[in-house]
Every structure is written in C-alpha cells, then in structure tokens.
Design a protein that fits this description.
two-stranded antiparallel sheet, disordered N terminus, 352 residues, 4 strands, mainly alpha, disordered C terminus, Rhopdopsin 7-helix transmembrane proteins, transmembrane helix
Amino acid sequence: VWGGGGNGSRGESWPGPPCDERLCSALPLRALIPVTAVCVGLFVVGVAGNVLTVLVICGHRDMKTTTNLCLGSMAVSDLLILLGLPFDLYCLWRSRPWIFGQLLCRLSHYLSEGCTYCTILHITALTVERYLDICFPLKAKVVVTKRRVKAVIGALWAFALLLAGPFFSLVGMEQPDNRTDFSRECKPTSQALESGLLGITFWVTTSYFVLPVVCLNVLYSCIGRELWRNKGRLRGPSTALRERGHRQTIKILGVVVLAFIICWLPFHIGRIIFINTRDTRMMLFSQYFNIFALQLFYLSASISPVFYNLISKKYRAAVYKLLLPHRSTERAFTITREAGGYTETSTRMRNE
C-alpha cells in the first residue's frame, strides 16, 4: 500500500497474508472486514451527501451565493474522489491481478490526485473570499461577484488537473517478465521508483498541503482579529444580522478546514513514510498506517455535507424541500447579502 490514501493506496506488496489466484489481500480477513464496512459506509454517506449538496445549490436560486458556488464545486470534487473508493477496496481484497486495464489504472490515480488538489484550492479560495468579505466589505461587494467566482472555480479546476498530470506517467499496470497474468498490478512504475521521480513528486505534493494550511492559519487569524475589533463597535439590527451571518459562515468553513487538516495530515505522513521505508518491519507498519490514512482520506470527502446539515438551518430546509416537496409545510427563507449568504430568517407557510 502506498500514498496514504485515495487511489494512491496501491503499490508494492509488503509482507502480508498469502497471495494466490483465489485470494490476494493486503490485510488478514479479521482486519479486512471492518475496514471494508467503514469504507462502504463512507461511500454511501459521501455520495448521497455530495449529490444532495450539488442538487440543492443548483436547484435553489437563493442558495446560489458566491460561497455556496464554491461549496458546490467542492462537492463535485469530493464525488470524483469517492469514485476511486471501489478500486481501493478491490485492491485491498485482491491486490493482483489488476483487471481494469491500463487506462483506468492511470485515470483513477490522476483523478484522485487532481481532485485532491482541487479540494485544497477550493478551501483556500473560500477562506480568501470570507477574508475579503469580513475585512474589506465594501471592496468585496465590487470584487467578489458570481461571474468572477465562476471564473475562479474554472481556473482552480484547470490548475489542479494540470498539477496532477505527472501521475499519468508515474503509475501504470506493471507485469514482470515471464510471469502469468496474475502478476498484473496497478502501482508506481519501475522507472518512477528507480529514478526517484515518485519521491520528488510526493514531496512536491506535500507542499500543496503545507502551504495552504499556512495560508489558512494566517487568513483565519486576520478574520478573527477583525471580528474581535468590530465586536460591539457598531449597533443596529442590520449590523447584528451581518455579524451573525459572518460567524455562521466562519463556523462552517472553520469546521471544514479542521476536518481537512485532521483527515489529510496522515495522508501526507503516509507518503513520506512510504518513500523513506526500507526495513521490512517499517514496510509492514507503513502498509497498516496507510490503510488507516485511506479511511481518513475518504472521510474528508464524505463529511462536509454532514457539517452543512448540522450547522446550517438553511441547508437543512433546502434538503428537506428537495426530498419532500409535497409535504404540507415548508420553510421560506430570505437571504441577507451582507451576511454572506448564510444568515436566514424563517417563516412557516402552508401550501395550498
């Protein structure tokens, strides 16, 4: 197991359970079953939650705020990440032979890596948008428009997929000479391992995690200082409403960022352990650690909609309306633009 999570979990075979044509698993059965149960649960929750997020944002005009557009795009990225989970589960149960062909081997790694970068960039962009809206509200009204946000989202996707390009050549379907088809594996190529390119790439991609985390800490420090400075300075209903909206949005994004750091730190630690491991005992530790990191990796792609549902009344009401459109009652909401799209006042009305 290599890579610490995602489709990067497939790699060289460490010492483990027996491997033959009938069974070739990365873990003993007593560990494989609970890991599989967790992954299946994450897949179901993640796919359902992210699909609902996309449908809610696309289907409700009042949900199409600049912040929510980024959250919707991030949900698409998380969905694509989750599509790699069945391949990882297959490799946990049967690390070889790889039966899905060369294209799917490379494409699954590429999409997983590209969407990982994309999610990181989206979280950073969301924090920058909140920073501008709170620290420079007048300028933000002019600069942060839906049209520009859509352009930024497109640029983030293009940049992330471009950064992931090397993984098309770093991984592939490997089959040693004079071996049967059973030996086919989807893993880092021999050239990538021997040349050191894989290790260099892992260190570079780790910087894509470290630099945004530093940026997020700086921005949240500035946001917190600004909110503290303005606390109680201005009075009035509109100011209180705007401040409440800021705090609601910061609460959501703060939880998402915290989950991002907790879930993805083991991902990158696992990669560093992998490229620096030579001892057999450490190889075995690396394999088990990376399987733990794999579950956290997919947890990060599944948990955001759960946070939205727990924190945002508006999101809960929109999901309720989407799933139960013919119920006799529904919630009607008005949005305050100054509140960043999350402040809501609700009334109950009866459908006629």
